[in-house]
Specification:
Blueprint lengths: L1 E5 L4 H12 L3 E5 L9 H8 L5 E4 L6 H5 L2 H22 L2 E7 L22 H16 L4 E5 L2 E2 L6 H11 L3 E4 L3 E2 L2 E2 H14 L3 E4 L7 E2 H12 L6 E4 L32 H16 L1
Parallel strand pairs: 1-2, 1-3, 3-4, 4-5, 5-10, 6-9, 7-12
Antiparallel strand pairs: 8-11
The structure holds NADP nicotinamide-adenine-dinucleotide phosphate.
Length: about 280
């Protein structure tokens, strides 16, 4: 396949480009400077190169920053996917855009499925939900993938920091009262490609399997896997962090479509975490 990846400099974008390349695809990789998804004309021109698939991994992911710049949040996270969806409709290619578990308000006690009504409580989440709506309105073949708690390699994301601090014995703060379903960027990338091949429009919830976990449990598990007994994990409540944006306390996801379209569940998050920590430790040696 000829796969165009936007936001290819980000955590998920890198994983997607790498996975598609390894799968034998021709990958057209665009980072932010190569392609700004808010520029409608440039987006149209770029997609006229006629890729088979466009996977949108570009977003403004600074959840707190979005609170104080609503215009930018909606330009990137809502108008951006709309521009891409329109351009994909014109050439008739597959379009996948990534959304977030934060579209839910977190008040449910169980897992969120596609049947649950989103109720975004931050500007970031509202802009992402608007991106979902605008994508499907612009192109009815849009594939929307909600995910959350993503971890992967690069040295700057939450779990890479955990692994590094655990190795150095530095103190770590971990939130005890936020629950999600972790997602390994590598597994997400593989699922995105499978969905592109299937080409069945709809909303998918893509996360690793398992019971869901608090940030604290997740952090402790990662620290345990590093084998460093000196690392100190401090348990904190989300409220004490006084962050500008509200985040859902529970954003565990489950997908009603995966089995129906013939795809297996993704590996358990603990298995994925083991693989990730082992890879991080090998790299640092
Ligand atoms: N990480 C998570 O836990 C998580 C959870 C749920 C959903 N998601 C979703 O997953 C997707 C990928 O996120 P990620 O974790 O890979 O985030 P990321 O590492 O922040 O990557 C996003 C990329 O988008 C680029 N970008 C920003 N504005 C752009 C624009 N106008 N045009 C083109 N590119 C632009 C950024 O470039 P610059 O940095 O140079 O601006 C960055 O490289 C996003 O849709 C996000 O909302 C992530």
């Amino acid at each position: 396949m000829r796969v165009l990846v936007t936001g290819a400099g980000g955590l998920v974008g890198r994983a997607v480009a790498e996975h598609c390349r390894r799968s034998g695809d021709e990958v057209l990789s665009y980072n932010h400077t190569d392609l700004d998804i808010t520029d409608r004309d440039v987006v149209r021109q770029t997609i006229r190169n006629e890729p088979d698939v466009v996977i949108n991994c570009a977003a403004w992911t600074d959840v707190d920053g979005c609170e104080s710049n609503r215009d930018k949040a909606f330009a990137v996270n809502a108008a951006g996917p709309e521009n891409l969806a329109n351009a994909c409709r014109e050439v008739g290619c597959v379009f996948i855009t990534i959304s977030t578990d934060y579209v839910f308000d977190g008040k449910k006690s169980g897992f969120y499925t596609q049947e649950d009504e989103p109720n975004p409580e931050s500007v970031y989440a509202a802009s992402k939900l608007d991106g979902e709506h605008r994508s499907s309105r612009s192109y009815d073949k849009s594939i929307i993938v909600r995910t959350g708690y993503i971890f992967g390699p690069d040295g700057t994301n939450f779990l890479s920091t955990v692994v590094e601090r655990a190795r150095n014995g530095t103190r770590l703060k971990a939130i005890r009262d936020m629950y999600g379903t972790p997602t390994y960027a590598k597994d997400l990338a593989a699922r995105l490609r499978e969905l592109a091949v299937l080409d069945k429009p709809g909303i998918y919830h893509v996360v690793n399997s398992g019971p869901g976990v608090s940030f604290e449990e997740f952090t402790r598990k990662a620290v345990e896997l590093t084998g460093n007994r000196n690392a100190v994990v401090e348990s904190v409540s989300a409220e004490t962090l006084n962050r500008p944006a509200k985040r859902p306390r529970n954003s565990r996801l489950r997908c009603l479509l995966t089995g129906a379209v013939g795809l297996p569940d993704l590996p358990f998050w603990e298995t994925a975490l083991e693989e990730f920590v082992a890879a991080e430790l090998t790299q640092e040696r």
